[in-house]
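[job 4471] stage=fold_predict status=RUNNING
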Amino acid sequence: MADSRTDEAVEVIRAAQLAGVPHGFLGRRGGVSGGVVAGLNVGLGAGDDDLAVAENRRRALEAVLPDARLVTVYQVHSPDVAVVTEPWPGDERPRADAIVSDRPGVLLGIVTADCAPVLLTDAEAGVIGAAHAGWRGARGGVLEATVAAMERLGATRQRIGAAIGPAIAQASYEVDDSFRARFGEDDSPFFVPGRPGHWQFDLEGYAARRLEQAGVGGIDRLGLDTYAQEARFYSYRRATHRKEPTYGRQFSLIGLPR
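[job 4471] inference complete, writing structure tokens
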């Protein structure tokens, strides 16, 4: 288990497809939380100390786009997209799993702990997006809905660059026959047979294909496994397997400078 390290810098992972636009995929390095969520936990529902979460969020924002206004949503594994014209009032957050904006000075944030975070930009149009793509959201169309919402703000899908950040990898993602039955035969490339009655699911590959089919111009797959890289990332499945009482969440952030 990683220890809390207040003297460790926040790790910011960047993608070539998003070059020139402030963004970052963050993990657990560089935060002040302790215990099983030691590190840069930014999850409001992790049972963490509120002051630690607030400090971690401040550090995350400072590492990606200082002086921006952070905007997040209440994630529910849906295909719904929120459009940001200005930060939500008070503590209000719409129930959605993606956010898009064309407003300078906002920083869009998605929290994950195995699901695939996807950041998107059409830098020429000045439009950005962030999506939380677990298997439900990805299968339900959250990525296509994000691209369509960006288009309504003036983006062109062929110009959109996307990056899929740290997520549970196929080698770590065992599912059973009932899970496999939720997907069609066209999805067979993303399932590898495992032990009897089980499969290994490629969430990152599945999300990449949905983006390709939506007409996105370029896609970076970072290939970072949240489950296997304990010192670097939080993982819901790892915490569940260990019967830990809670689990941390990491940020993926993208914004437009003023």
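[job 4471] summary: Residues 12-255 form a domain with the CNF1/YfiH-like putative cysteine hydrolases fold (CATH 3.60.140.10).
[job 4471] exit 0
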